[in-house]
């Protein structure tokens, strides 16, 4: 039992295989099997219409338009000589330029890490005011930290049932035993 109406024969002269899933070349419009669908495999005469490659400048990575009949190497060479925007100094730009102001520290950061109190630029390790001996204000902690210290000291003095720390370091309650 044969199904003569299904599939098509490959247009390649040396093949002529009956293919049930034929592929149509988008350049010449002929039907081919999977082995001959590429332009080079069936020596497509219309490949120049579709097989267009745009060369890219190796220095500035810009696509260079090439007209029909021009040799891409010559066009890219002319671009490199005249229009190329390549800047060799651009590759040498340093990323880590923000040096830590803490004496003895030689670390550099990609972004500025500025202390809110003294305005100095520090590395991640020395970014907190206590870590770089900040001289910017009277208290070397953040506003929230300073407020927490003040609350803790006030509650320690006001409360009568607070936990006391004697000189020997052991914790005991101020209750009668």
**What's the shape?**
elongated
The percentage of residues in β strands lies in 5-15%
Question: Count of helical segments?
Answer: 4
**Can you give the mean pLDDT?**
78
Helix content bin: 10-25%
Note poorly predicted spans. 162-177
How would you summarize the topology of this molecule?
Layout (H helix, E strand, L loop, with lengths): L7 E2 L8 E2 L3 E2 L6 E2 L14 H4 L21 H11 L5 H4 L6 E2 L8 E2 L33 H16 L19
Antiparallel strand pairs: 1-2, 3-4, 5-6
What would your notes on this structure say?
The relative contact order is 0.06. The protein is elongated. It contains four helices and six strands; from the N terminus they run E-E-E-E-H-H-H-E-E-H. The C terminus is likely disordered. It is of the alpha+beta class and 177 residues long.
Provide a brief overview of the structure.
Helix content is 20%, strand content 7%. The protein is built from four helices and six strands; from the N terminus they run E-E-E-E-H-H-H-E-E-H. The protein has a two-stranded antiparallel ribbon. A two-stranded antiparallel sheet has the order 3-4.
Keywords:
177 residues; alpha+beta; two-stranded antiparallel ribbon; 4 helices; 6 strands; elongated; disordered C terminus
